From TrEMBL:
Domain of life: Bacteria
Name of the featured protein: Chromosome partition protein Smc
Membrane-spanning parts: 29-49
Keyword flag Membrane: yes
UniProt keyword list: Membrane, Transmembrane, Transmembrane helix
Length: 462
């Protein structure tokens, strides 16, 4: 599809009409002079004396023939140039319809400049033709000679412009190829957009048959209506590049609406399942939260305050979190009933986050008691585990070296001292076993970082 703007490169109307008249006149002349029949008809008449002038004999008649030949050659050059200009104008209009790049605008400007040169050369040719009547009786030899010279000069000028026009046309090949490629893409792209809109509309109809409204999807599809109107108006009104971009955008957005519509029944079922699952989980957490207080009582009875003070808030916080989760579940159910799917999904995510936090807090109390029981009975196991981690890191730091790198040795030395202090803190009537466990965990983490750093520097597996 090509846009057809007004012809900005056409010569002025009177001149153009004169050029066209001359073109048709000399096209007929070129046809006639190539027919052998012309000679068969003319020669006998000339020898018989039936004509109004002599065709042979004398210098004037020879010059007349040469001038006529020059006139015919100039007419052929004019016709070739006019045809080439017409063909090239189609190429320029194709580029204009698709491409608005600086290179395309420069090509239009260059074509306009060539058009002015074509007007000038055509004008010289027409002036030369109009100035000399080669069919006049008793044509002077000097007049015929001058006519031949002027017509030959006009032909040569037309030929030079034609050569420049041909070179210009060859240089348009990349721009023209790009434009034609886009034009080839245009009709399929528009058709794909129409089919995508139809498929989205059908998908919405199928969803509504199941009792789901899909109002938000219907609104998104309705918003594409004006875009379809512009696609139907065509590239002639909106341009090829803009129409291509619009067709691709409509296809993409309509495809998204269709995909969501097709998934909507599954999404509704998934939300229903999550509502049931989260209600069950909230009820289970309510039961588990009630078991935290006995765990805290045992921690208070058997261990120092530092071992359990940070867990004091767990029962109250768990109860509050479960209450909040149940309220959000009711809101999510209302959103699902109203088929506000994004709201329902968001609320369910909030409920899940609340229950996850509660689960971790409730589990932390029981895990704390278990770990404190273990270390209070046998702290040596934790000590040995931590010392092994330090020694393993030290062996790796010394591998292939006489002295360790200070960047590795310093944190390991500090870890040894830190472990010794944690062990020493266990002495006493009420040791802080939780502090001991957090210290040994920190020491092992430091040793692991050193090992990872050494292996990374040496290019080994981390």
């Amino acid at each position: 599809m090509t846009a057809t703007p007004s012809e900005p490169y056409t010569p002025s109307a009177p001149r153009a009409q004169s050029v066209r008249r001359q073109l048709h006149r000399y096209r007929d002349v070129l046809t006639l002079v190539t027919l052998p029949l012309l000679a068969a008809l003319v020669l006998p008449a000339a020898f018989a004396g039936g004509g109004t002038r002599r065709w042979f004999g004398g210098r004037a008649e020879s010059q007349r023939a040469e001038a006529q030949a020059a006139k015919d050659a100039a007419a052929a050059a004019f016709y070739e140039l006019d045809t080439a200009q017409r063909d090239l104008r189609i190429s320029i209009e194709t580029i204009i319809a698709v491409d608005d790049s600086p290179a395309a605008r420069r090509a239009v400007s260059d074509f306009e400049a060539l058009g002015r040169r074509i007007d000038e050369a055509s004008g010289k040719y027409i002036e030369a033709v109009d100035a000399h009547d080669l069919d006049r009786d008793e044509l002077e030899a000097s007049v015929a000679t001058r006519a031949r010279a002027e017509l030959t000069a006009a032909k040569d000028q037309l030929g030079r412009v034609k050569q420049d026009l041909d070179r210009f046309g060859q240089g348009l090949a990349p721009l023209l190829g790009k434009a034609e490629t886009q034009l080839v893409r245009l009709a399929p792209a528009v058709e794909r957009a129409r089919q995508a809109l139809l498929a989205a509309s059908n998908a919405l109809d199928n969803v509504r048959k199941t009792g789901l409204r899909a109002d938000d999807l219907a609104g998104r599809l309705a918003a594409l209506g004006p875009e379809l109107t512009k696609l139907n108006q065509g590239a002639g009104q909106h341009g090829v590049a803009e129409t291509l971009e619009r067709a691709e955008r409509v296809s993409r957005e309509a495809g998204a609406v269709r995909a969501e519509a097709e998934r909507l029944p599954e999404r509704a079922a998934e939300i229903d399942h999550r509502l049931v699952s989260l209600r069950t989980r909230a009820q289970a957490l309510t039961t588990r939260a009630g078991q935290v207080e006995p765990v805290l009582s045992e921690l208070r009875r058997r261990f120092s305050a530092a071992c359990w003070q940070d867990l004091q808030h767990v029962p109250e916080q768990a109860t509050e979190n479960v209450r909040q989760a149940e309220l959000k579940l009711k809101e999510a159910q209302a959103a699902r009933d109203a088929q506000r799917w994004p709201d329902a999904t968001s609320l369910l995510s909030t409920v899940r986050a609340l229950l996850n936090g509660t689960d971790e807090a409730v589990s932390a109390a029981g895990d704390r008691l278990r770990r404190l029981n273990a270390v209070s009975k046998d702290p040596q196991q934790e000590i040995d585990r931590t010392r092994f981690a330090i020694r393993d890191a030290q062996r790796l730091a010394m591998a292939g070296r006489n002295t360790p790198d200070p960047r590795h040795a310093r944190p390991l030395d500090d870890s040894v001292a830190r472990l010794e202090r944690a062990i020493a803190a266990l002495e006493g009537r009420h040791p802080d076993y939780w502090h001991f466990l957090t210290e040994t965990e920190a020491v092992r983490a430091t040793a692991a970082r050193v090992v990872s750093q050494i292996r990374e520097e040496r290019g080994g597996p981390v």
